[in-house]
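User: tokens in, sequence out, please.
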């Protein structure tokens, strides 16, 4: 009885003991690329996993050049409605939260930066990095500015600077950001970050509050899933463009040379990956239509006697479409111009070479079938007087000659008449095997 009481007392003491550092953990994910649908899905899942796994907080280590406004809005919505504290940490030194990264950082429960980092330049631009003109510029700028200001106000950060980051494209260092109230603190590394935020009381969704107890907590790193990694890679507009181009060329080679197999298989895979990328990236459908029109005109050039007019038009449509492909108001993504011009030059040279080969083959004298026999030498195997048999291309043919020709002599075929050939003696030549 006494031993039972002792064991019960020990169990009660253990249950009432405070949690050790090893019993607590924080989740950490790294976002070191553009903001796109794959990134948004990654952050959404990380928040859900942190809640289900009982993490004290979620750390998003951020280094981004910007990205899609639509994906940024999705991430902001998840951060503002997160049931667990989310710490956005712009790191390591040299990293930056540029453009769309400003919205993500300011929407965090706690915003932190490493020494030697920067934040800002959130002005919306066109697909080639140029200023948006006309009414669309004002519309995009006003929306981005109001979004940035609204986030800052909700998180109690510098709303005036948040608006300037959009309208004036200002960018500041970590020290300036801390001084202006854009972020909450500067930390040298993740352990230092956890030490500095420990004990802070933060506001969560639905006016709930939580007190952070993260000093010395275990750090659980959460990598991207394979699907998210693939989509993140495909979100590169240059890669998506090259995959689409490779897919169309591969299928073209397969259609013009049935049975080769490899170009068709490789082209089909590239085209499917390219179409997947187009679902991730914002598409200017006018640009896509111009690209398809350009490729169709280049193919038509091989079969139509237009002397290059259709081909030149196809190249122009292809280049313009390529430059416009990802040119949308809610994105600063674009295909590199050097890749566009290199692809156009490759297509043009390819079309020219194929066209030259087609013309050469059409002008070449037939070498197969009955037409290919005309002009060929044959050996007389049965005396022609005037009819007999000759041997040519491994076959025996009935032949008719203008004059008698002995066995073993060579004759030249001058005409094919059904299953009979008309021949003429080859002057000054002894019989030889052919």
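Assistant: Sequence out:
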């Amino acid at each position: 009885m006494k031993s039972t009481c002792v064991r019960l007392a020990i169990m009660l003491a253990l249950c009432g003991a405070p949690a050790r550092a090893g019993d607590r953990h924080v989740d950490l994910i790294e976002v070191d690329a553009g903001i796109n649908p794959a990134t948004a899905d990654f952050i959404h899942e990380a928040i859900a996993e942190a809640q289900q796994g009982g993490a004290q907080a979620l750390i998003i280590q951020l280094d981004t050049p910007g990205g899609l406004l639509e994906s940024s809005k999705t991430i902001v919505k998840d951060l503002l409605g997160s049931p667990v504290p989310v710490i956005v940490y712009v790191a390591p030194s040299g990293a930056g939260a540029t453009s769309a990264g400003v919205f993500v950082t300011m929407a965090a429960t706690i915003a932190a930066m490493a020494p030697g980092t920067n934040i800002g330049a959130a002005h919306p631009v066109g697909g080639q990095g140029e200023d948006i003109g006309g009414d669309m510029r004002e519309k995009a700028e006003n929306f981005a500015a109001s979004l940035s200001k609204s986030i800052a106000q909700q998180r109690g950060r510098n709303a005036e600077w948040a608006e300037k980051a959009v309208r004036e494209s200002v960018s500041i260092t970590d020290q300036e950001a801390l001084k202006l109230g854009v972020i909450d603190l500067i930390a040298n590394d993740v352990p230092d970050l956890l030490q500095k935020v420990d004990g802070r009381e933060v506001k969560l969704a639905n006016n709930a509050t939580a007190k952070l107890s993260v000093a010395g907590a275990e750090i659980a790193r959460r990598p991207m899933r394979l699907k998210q990694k693939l989509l993140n890679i495909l979100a590169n507009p240059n890669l998506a463009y090259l995959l689409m181009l490779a897919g169309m060329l591969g299928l073209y080679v397969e259609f013009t040379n049935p049975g080769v197999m490899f170009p068709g298989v490789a082209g089909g895979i590239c085209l499917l990956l390219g179409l997947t990328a187009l679902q991730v990236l914002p598409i200017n459908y006018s640009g896509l239509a111009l690209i398809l029109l350009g490729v169709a005109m280049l193919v038509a050039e091989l079969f139509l006697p237009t002397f290059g007019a259709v081909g030149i038009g196809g190249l122009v449509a292809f280049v313009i479409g390529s430059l416009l492909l990802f040119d949308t108001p809610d994105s600063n993504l674009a295909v590199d111009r050097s890749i566009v011009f290199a692809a156009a030059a490759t297509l043009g040279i390819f079309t020219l070479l194929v066209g030259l080969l087609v013309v050469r083959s059409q002008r070449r004298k037939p070498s197969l079938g009955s037409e290919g026999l005309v002009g060929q030498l044959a050996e007389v195997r049965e005396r022609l007087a005037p009819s007999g048999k000759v041997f040519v291309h491994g076959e025996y043919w009935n032949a008719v000659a203008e004059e008698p020709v002995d066995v073993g002599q060579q004759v030249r075929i001058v005409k094919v008449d059904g299953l009979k050939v008309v021949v003429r003696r080859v002057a000054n030549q002894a019989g030889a095997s052919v």
